Amino acid sequence: MKTITIHPVGKVFSPRKDLMDDYWGGVVSEIRIDPEQFTAEAVSELESFSHLEIVFFMDRVPREKIQRGARHPRNRMDWPKVGIFA
């Protein structure tokens, strides 16, 4: 498989500090574009679009805890296992 190198264009700031994978509905986060790489013009008229596609790297999960197969959503054993991409 080919290796892809990515370089961040900004950073996400969130008031949440825990690593729970649930209850994100009311959380408002902020994406700050790196001013060393981009001017304010880089986001000019962004608010006029209906959608944004954000690609992010989840860097706070320790490698040994990354799920690579199926799991019970929200760690609820009463729910059936589904693939991690489901």
From TrEMBL:
InterPro entries: TrmO-like_N, YaeB-like_sf, YaeB_N_sf. The lineage of its organism: Bacteria, Bacillati, Bacillota, Bacilli, Bacillales. Keywords: S-adenosyl-L-methionine. This is TsaA-like domain-containing protein. Residues 6-86 form the TsaA-like domain. SUPFAM superfamilies: YaeB-like. Belongs to the tRNA methyltransferase O family. It comes from Kroppenstedtia guangzhouensis. It comes from the Bacteria.
